[in-house]
């Protein structure tokens, strides 16, 4: 029986069990949630709902609308393989273009009626007797509970902003906001502004605001390696060729994919190779930074690749401006109108912008999703998040994660990872919905053995060569990254079969 026939049989439901409100609930409408919904519908699943806290689709690319927000992966690769776009305006897509792309995908695949916008996911509990998920949501209608056979968490790995825990931060009387919640209504012109953080987000928005503000203090805790950004607009001729010759467009996408994949040799297999790559970043500094003091401040003391490699052409020129100071002395406290550093220097500011990143290794959703015996994901993850291929967690039947633990890739497109996961999830949901109520979960031994080998591999990677990064849980365990080629990740997902899972029929049907 094919997946579609299985689904049709499953949709009829089984005897003696509570009929859930939906077959599937999906949390989030970024790349992951939308891709999941499109593929479920393709398989004949009609009864699903997407829970979205925002007022439009897009996830990361809806929220991160700070000046200069753009993706570090080329547009032709950073898009769904089955929903290509020939007229990307430039090599690296900007946030507005990506958000528009995701909105157009949702419209083209007629997903909007299946989305509950402005609805917060509050938590979910697995009912072991009925083998269904009970999902609590909150919207203008108040608190509600929805039930579903399967729950897909596509809430994003970098969705919950992290604010710095600096003494006195709550006392600050001026304007504050996080990069992912930019206040475009606040006019920065002429203001004294402090930016805390120098990660991927800050290096994009600092150059955009540096010329506008009166004075800018940029607080850097640790420098990052930065390489040039080979960006440019696509010409009309190129866009026409992508549109007229789909084969060429696909080949172009493949070329970008393999070019990026080649970096895995250095990052995972041969960290020593990264030393050669580091030369590119060193030359970039030599070319763009003339002041020896600034050069010393921006040059990292760890091997390139240990933390995410950033790309920018305008970061160094921006922090070299006369109205910008790169402060590397640690922050001691924040006062009502100033930032005070460990050397006692007080710098007055009107506005504090936090470019301080996200809860990447301790996703807050873990605290409110409870599986067997009422144990939460966070309780299972006290020593760091773990899943089987970032998708299935032991003791959490009928739960599927998109962009779960150890699925992050710094070297290529997360959309490739997402599509790979969705291919497995749709296959497993197909099994689950076939033949009446049942539960499906990853075998604990398969789950644990996978994670043991995964950590072994990570231990010899560039990411373990000695640096702090958001890839690591506070225990030191790397929980954010996939240590290998992405085609290998996809291949492993394709190999997941019945023998890896425990499938239990509902009591009343056995
Ligand atoms: P991030 O890379 O985690 O950077 C956070 C920055 O804040 C770091 O410089 C960090 O210093 C600093 N920081 C955090 N807490 C601090 C504190 N208490 N005191 C002082 N400094 C503090 O966050 P992000 O820049 O938002 O980027 C997060 C991720 O989002 C990226 O790595 C990337 O995966 C993704 N992203 C991608 C793009 C893109 O594709 N272009 C753009 C933006 C974001 P330390 O380094 O010392 O911890």
From TrEMBL:
Any matching Pfam family: FMO-like
Domain of life: Bacteria
Protein keywords: FAD, Flavoprotein, Monooxygenase, Oxidoreductase
GO function terms (MF aspect): flavin adenine dinucleotide binding; N,N-dimethylaniline monooxygenase activity; NADP binding
Gene3D superfamilies: FAD/NAD(P)-binding domain (3.50.50.60)
Classification via PANTHER family: FAD_NAD(P)-BINDING DOMAIN-CONTAINING PROTEIN-RELATED (PTHR42877:SF4), L-ORNITHINE N(5)-MONOOXYGENASE-RELATED (PTHR42877)
Protein's name according to its UniProt entry: Cyclohexanone monooxygenase
């Amino acid at each position: 029986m094919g997946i579609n026939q299985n689904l049709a049989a499953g949709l009829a439901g089984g005897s003696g069990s509570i009929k859930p409100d939906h077959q599937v609930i999906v949390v989030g409408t970024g790349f992951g949630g939308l891709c999941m919904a499109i593929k479920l519908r393709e398989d004949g699943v009609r009864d699903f709902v997407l829970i979205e806290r925002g007022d439009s689709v897009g996830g990361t690319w809806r929220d991160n609308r700070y000046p200069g927000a753009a993706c570090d992966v080329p547009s032709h690769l950073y898009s769904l393989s089955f929903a290509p776009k020939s007229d990307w305006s430039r090599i690296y897509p900007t946030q507005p273009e990506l958000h528009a792309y995701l909105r157009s995908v949702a419209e083209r695949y007629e997903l909007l009626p299946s989305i509950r916008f402005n609805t917060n996911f509050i938590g979910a509990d697995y009912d072991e007797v009925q083998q269904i998920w009970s999902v609590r949501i909150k919207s203008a209608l108040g608190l509600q509970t929805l039930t579903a056979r399967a729950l897909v968490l596509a809430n994003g790995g970098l969705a919950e902003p992290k604010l710095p825990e600096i003494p006195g931060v709550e006392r600050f009387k001026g304007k504050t906001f996080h990069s992912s919640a930019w206040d475009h209504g606040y006019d920065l012109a002429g203001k004294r502004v402090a930016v805390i953080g120098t990660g991927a987000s800050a290096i994009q928005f600092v150059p955009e605001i540096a010329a506008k503000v009166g004075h800018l203090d940029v607080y850097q805790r640790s420098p990052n390696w930065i390489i040039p950004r080979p960006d440019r607009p696509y010409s009309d001729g190129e866009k026409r060729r992508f549109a007229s010759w789909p084969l060429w467009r696909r080949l172009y996408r493949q070329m970008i994919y393999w070019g990026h994949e080649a970096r895995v040799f250095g990052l995972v297999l041969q960290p020593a190779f990264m030393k050669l790559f580091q030369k590119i970043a060193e030359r970039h500094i030599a070319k763009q930074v003339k002041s020896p003091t600034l050069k010393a401040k921006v040059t990292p003391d760890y091997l390139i690749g240990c933390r995410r490699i950033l790309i920018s052409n305008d970061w160094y020129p921006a922090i070299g401006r006369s109205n910008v100071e790169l402060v590397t002395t640690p922050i001691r406290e924040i006062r009502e109108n100033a930032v005070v550093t460990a050397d006692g220097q007080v710098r007055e500011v009107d506005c504090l912008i936090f470019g301080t990143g996200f809860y990447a290794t301790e996703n807050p959703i873990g605290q409110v999703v409870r599986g067997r015996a009422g144990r939460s994901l966070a309780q299972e993850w006290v020593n760091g998040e773990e899943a089987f291929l970032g998708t299935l967690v032991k003791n959490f039947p009928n739960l599927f994660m998109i962009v779960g633990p150890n699925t992050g890739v710094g070297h290529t497109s997360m959309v490739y990872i997402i599509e790979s996961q969705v291919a497995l999830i749709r296959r497993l949901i197909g099994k689950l919905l076939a033949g009446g109520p049942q539960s499906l979960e990853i075998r604990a031994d398969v789950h644990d053995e996978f994670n043991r080998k995964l950590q072994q591999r990570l231990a010899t990677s560039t990411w373990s060569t000695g640096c702090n990064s958001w890839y690591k849980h506070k225990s030191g365990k790397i929980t954010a990254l996939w240590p290998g080629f992405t085609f290998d990740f996809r291949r492993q997902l394709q190999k997941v079969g019945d023998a890896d899972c425990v499938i239990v029929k509902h009591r009343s049907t056995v």
